[in-house]
Automatic annotation (TrEMBL), chains A, B:
The keyword Disulfide bond does not apply. Keywords: FAD, Flavoprotein, Oxidoreductase. The keyword Cell division does not apply. Its cofactor is FAD. Belongs to the NADH dehydrogenase family. It comes from Rossellomorea marisflavi. Pfam families: Pyr_redox_2. This is NADH dehydrogenase. InterPro entries: FAD/NAD-bd_sf (IPR036188), FAD/NAD-binding_dom (IPR023753), NADH-Q_oxidoreductase (IPR051169). Residues 5-325 form the FAD/NAD(P)-binding domain. Coiled coil: none annotated.
Length: 405, 405
């Protein structure tokens, strides 16, 4: 009898968690496990804002997949997924086709630009290690060029961040810390630099406790961030953005750097696959399977789950993605072992902390509101916990964050 | 009686040497000394190729002027010189006019583009700290963008260096060392990177011993440098250069980075001043004064002196500039002390070493040919000697190069 084949797409939080749990729960004779990922490394999506701002080197936000995967039980295929052929139970990659018995889709998110003109061409997004390096180097070059051309174009030093959600705010916090370093590096008067956050919604960090939001805004303003709130970004151009200040008033803001951090959607491969979805996210069953597809699990940013208490979707967080990975692994192990009673996924939200730079944060942990050093400490505990869950203490030792105070 | 005022323009090798010697030879009551420089730091022009390639941080190639100048004897004015009004014996700067009794012009060199179309717009030059930072960051961004856009445009990784003279060759040597680091930093296959040196003359390093030139070329080729020799660069465009491969054949070479390192001229301020000059350089008298101007000394890259043995001009080197500074200081001290017999400048050329990266070099020192580790060692001795001449052992300790092997 042929061993069933489990194919996991994506080595993000969800996919990697699934694989590292599956490799413990399944014996070599139980199933064949294949992990497919574009890069030979995993990166911490929730740390990318640091690599993008240049406050943390990108090698600190990634680690080798082969270092955490048991290669005697898991075959790692470095390949780009090009198509998911549900009817044929196979995945098309640039390294050839891969057939599956059980499929786990953890392909992560893509930037959602809501059809805003010019964003794709003129704005960066904080989406992966390659993009993060590009943002960092672009900002460096703007500062260098400003100086080299004789300080004639102050707008080179303006950084526009579109979006005051989680990613936007965390990136602004890092920029607030990075700009003084950049000014020192390039002999530039810090007064010349502007960091402007443009947000369509009437508030920053929607869903966060208002008191914490107030703290966050004041902390970022102290670091030099300007906010333009309730003012949709209408268009991005070469070197500027158009902002709707009111119904009739459009302002052009010149900026050397434009970063779009205002939204994510699931993978376009989901849409292409024909699996029922909403903005490329699959509203999964309670056992994390795609409706109508008993052999397909969808996790992380590609999945959509409604929180019954709030009647709103759970946010696409690393915390939930990792918990989904654990449940998914147990459910696949059950299927492989011939059981048809699967476990329902129940998120256990321990808390949410939003960093405001290395030295400051806000958050709610186990129901308790935190700010400043305490919140910043908890943020690092959470970041280290992600490493621990996947790679144990040795990974925490290698890549962890220990500059607590 | 009013003290005579000595104004020194430029804190390069020549100007700074003049000032640090003058402050020892003149008492506070003898003369007023004013040093005018655009930046508050001196930079080692002969190390800029390292900062440009990114192999040495720019803070290692510069030091504070106030750290080496005796501020109780020398007034330092941070200002950009805008005009030299010879008839009125005054210098116009962006911080106001400065009158002089004795003037020392050590304003350094500017890039000479020989009227080649597009060079000014599309090529970088290794001319100062600001420019060096820009080249480094531009190359970084090209590598990052190559990766972020999906490795579709290999030409981003091509670096064209125009000129196989001293600066061009030294820069190529650093690039040869830097590229493997860049490939590691950006996860790029080194085979994709091209470093191409384009030179109009039929040989590299004209004036150097042919055996050493052969060594240099082989060493650089081993580091991945391609040479296109005897092929003038005809035009620089956005993202490419045109190279005359023969009389009838023009080749377009696409390149993400174009650096022009093929020639220098004196300062345009010299031309503007009306002082007799050739390509902005003044053919000075033996006592280093400008012909017809008994109160003006011209040193370094702004000066031109014929070597009577070879009947060719001495090359514009740091070694000669510093020696000129010493002679100039003695001559000014003599004038201030009422002597009219000035000393003639005699260059004492101890040797010339051309670096091929941190780990390799060629050179002739005290008449002896050197290559490899020995030459590389001598290069660092020479670099440290420049520091020692201006700032003594403490400056060598702070900024010196000690990674000898």
């Amino acid at each position: 009898m042929r061993k069933p084949r489990v194919v996991v797409l994506g080595a993000g939080y969800a996919g990697l968690m699934t694989v590292t749990r599956l490799q413990k729960q399944l014996g070599t004779n139980d199933a064949e496990i294949i992990l497919v990922n574009k890069n030979d490394y995993h990166y911490e999506t929730t740390w990318l804002h640091e690599a993008s701002a240049g406050t943390l080197h990108h090698d600190r936000v990634r680690y080798d997949i082969k270092g955490v995967v048991n290669t005697s039980k898991v075959n790692f295929l470095q390949a780009s997924v090009e198509d998911i052929k549900v009817a044929e139970k196979k995945v098309v990659t640039d390294q050839g086709d891969v057939e599956y018995d059980y499929l786990v889709i953890g392909l992560g998110a893509e930037a959602e630009t809501f059809g805003i003109q010019g964003l794709h061409e003129h704005a960066f997004t904080i989406s992966n290690v390659n993009g993060a390096r590009q943002i960092r180097d672009h900002i460096d070059l703007q500062f260098a060029t400003y100086k080299a051309e004789g300080e004639i174009n102050d707008e080179r030093l303006t950084i526009v961040v579109g979006g005051a959600g989680f990613t936007g705010i965390e990136f602004l916090g890092e920029l607030g810390n990075r700009v003084p370093e950049l000014c020192k590096e390039y002999d530039i008067d810090q007064k010349k630099v502007r960091i402007v956050c443009v947000e369509a919604a009437p508030m920053i960090l929607p869903g966060f406790d208002p008191e914490l939001v107030k703290y966050a805004r004041a902390a970022l303003e102290k670091k030099g961030v300007e906010f333009s709130i309730g003012t949709p970004l209408k268009e991005a151009r070469e070197g500027s953005v158009l902002i709707a200040k009111s119904e009739d008033e459009i302002e052009e803001l010149k900026a050397g750097t434009i970063v779009w951090a205002a939204g994510v959607r699931g993978s376009t491969l989901i849409e292409k696959s024909g699996i029922e979805n909403m903005r490329a996210r699959v509203k999964v069953n309670l056992d994390l399977r795609a409706p109508g597809h008993d052999d397909i699990f969808v996790l992380g940013d590609c999945s959509l789950m409604i929180n019954e208490e709030t009647e709103r979707p759970y946010p696409p967080t690393a915390q939930i993605a990792m918990q989904q990975g654990e449940t998914c692994a147990r459910n696949i192990a059950a299927l492989v072992h011939g059981k048809d009673q699967l476990e329902n996924f129940k998120p256990d939200i321990k808390g949410t902390v939003c960093s405001l730079g290395e030295d400051d944060a806000i958050g709610v942990v186990y129901g308790k509101k935190l700010t400043g050093v305490k919140a910043s400490f908890m943020k690092k505990v959470i970041d280290n916990r992600s490493l621990f869950m996947v790679g144990g203490p040795s990974l925490v030792f290698k890549k962890g964050k220990f500059k607590f105070f």
